[in-house]
Amino acid sequence: MRFYSFLIISSFYTCMSLLSSNPSIAMGADEDVQHTPVAIVGGGLAGLSAALTLEEAGQDYALFEARPRLGGRVYSETVGGTVFNMGGQWIDPEHTNMQKLAKELHMTLKEEPLTGPIYIKVGEREQTLNQSISMLESIVSKIKPVEKEATKGKILPGTSLQQVLPRTLFSDGERSLLHTYLIAEYGLSEDELNAYVVSYLKKELNNFLKLFKCKAMYVPSLVPQLAGAYEYRVQEGMTPMIEAIAHRLTPSRIRTEHELISISKDATGKFHLHFKGEGRGEVVADVVIMTMPFSVLRSFDDLASLGLPDLTTRAIKNLSYGNNTIVRVSGKIKPDLRDYIHGNIGAISSTPVSGPGLSIYTGAEVADSLTQETAFPLVDSVLGDLEAIFSSSSSSSSSSSSSSAPSPTPRFLVKNWKEDPFARGSYSTFGLHGDELNLSSILPDFKGFRQFAEPVGLFMFAGEHTQLEEGYMESAVRSGQMVAEYCLRHPKK
Question: Looking at the structure, do residues 176 and 284 belong to the same domain, yes or no?
Answer without folding.
Answer: no
